[in-house]
Amino acid sequence: MLAIAGGKGGVGKTTTALGLATAYVRRRRRPLVVDADRGMPNCHLYADTPGERGVADVAAGHPLADAVEPVRALPGVDLLAGGDAAPGSYLDRLPRGRPLIVDTAAGAGADVGAALVAADAVVVVTTPDEEAVVDALKSAALARALGTPVVAGVVVGTRDDTDGIATALDAPVTAVPRSRAPLRNTSVAAAYDNLATATGPNP
């Protein structure tokens, strides 16, 4: 289970979760993206799914197959939409036989902590802006304090050298160019393919 985290909202966590999922599809895997943002669950909007089923159903004990929505715009990707359920009430119920990508909330609240604890590793997402980078470093520090390794970083909105951020995060960093349609952009797809390599074969 791989958590996608970042201290600041709007830096590209949800796009990264879906973009990385499509990279795993290209590797002949069937990933499940989980929206663990209880306060602003919007992954289904990015994925263009109804968001009528999701984490609350799993937390209530319903079978995963009844709660998952296939992402028709991204064939091969499934989504567990967000809702009013704490990550600790459903993440441990998810089967581990497929890539699990957890889109966390911004910041360092209890829900983020629960998702980081449940995850095997974390990818920290930021933009090149100084404030976002500072917040990303706080997310990385929180993950490590909870015993979850930071396996990679993502800097959305740049093609520039990211060595400084990689050094600060103490993890390899993938630069993702900004795009108005990132999930249909070939340069962005190539960046997420690189991220899939950095995160390993079994998230």
Automatic annotation (TrEMBL):
Annotated CobQ/CobB/MinD/ParA nucleotide binding domain residues: 2-156
One of the protein's GO biological processes: negative regulation of cell division
Protein name per its UniProtKB record: CobQ/CobB/MinD/ParA nucleotide binding domain-containing protein
Pfam families the record matches: CbiA
GO CC field: cytoplasmic side of plasma membrane; cytosol
Organism of provenance: Halarchaeum grantii
Gene3D superfamilies recorded: P-loop containing nucleotide triphosphate hydrolases (3.40.50.300)
InterPro entries tied to this protein: CobQ/CobB/MinD/ParA_Nub-bd_dom, P-loop_NTPase, ParA/MinD_ATPase
GO molecular function, one term: ATP hydrolysis activity
